[in-house]
Amino acid sequence: MAEKKETKEKAAAKKPASEKPYSTAGATERRIGAVICWLAAIACEIVAICLYSGKIEITFMNTLVALVALLVIDLILVIVGSMLWKKANHIDPASEKNKVKFFLWNNMGVIACIIAFLPFIIMILTDKENKDPKMKKIAGIAAAIAIVIGVLFSIDWHPISEEAKTEQVKYQNSVYYTQFGKKYHLYDNCQHINTSDTKTEGTVEEAINHGCNDVCKTCADNYEKENGKSYLDIKDAVEEGAK
After folding, report:
1. Cα–Cα distance between 52 and 214 in angstroms, integer?
2. Which of 13, 19, 77, 214 could serve as a FRET partner for 156 with CA atoms 20 to 30 Å apart?
């Protein structure tokens, strides 16, 4: 037993100090999937530009219908890519120490959406020939609506940093979260989730990976009343766990 304990201690000593205290498995695969979706979306845009400008023709379908179909496919690919990227950011978030990377990592979906639609919109707006006013108007409106929807779905409304996740996963207690909630809860009878049918129990890390980036304020207040200290006080929590 002593030998096993010594082996574990040696292994812990060899463990890199920079290694993250949570699993990042699956983040890279999701980011690759997101990039593939975005590249496919840009390819759809290029086809739409060529179709509108007359560089290519589709004989089996009306040009306007084909343009709208391409824009819809473009939008779907943008949204799927953004969902994958945001999920990856919850699993393996960027550090706030690098401000540029942190900004880019949390806005890649928006950037990809703009690239996937803005050139087409600019082409429509700068079209002086006006060969088909109806096609120009409908395609322009469809593209404008698509970029707005794409940006709204691509924004990470609740981003998290590597530092924030590292701090929160130090808590090893069970928490509760719902399918579409953005906060995790310390009590399963919290007023915000006590009637939910999608309530799940798990670790703080699982809750954050799901998209719940912070503790429910009501639960945190109740915890402080019961324990006389803040739930967010890492030092007290670590010391309590060491006792």
Report:
1. 47
2. 19
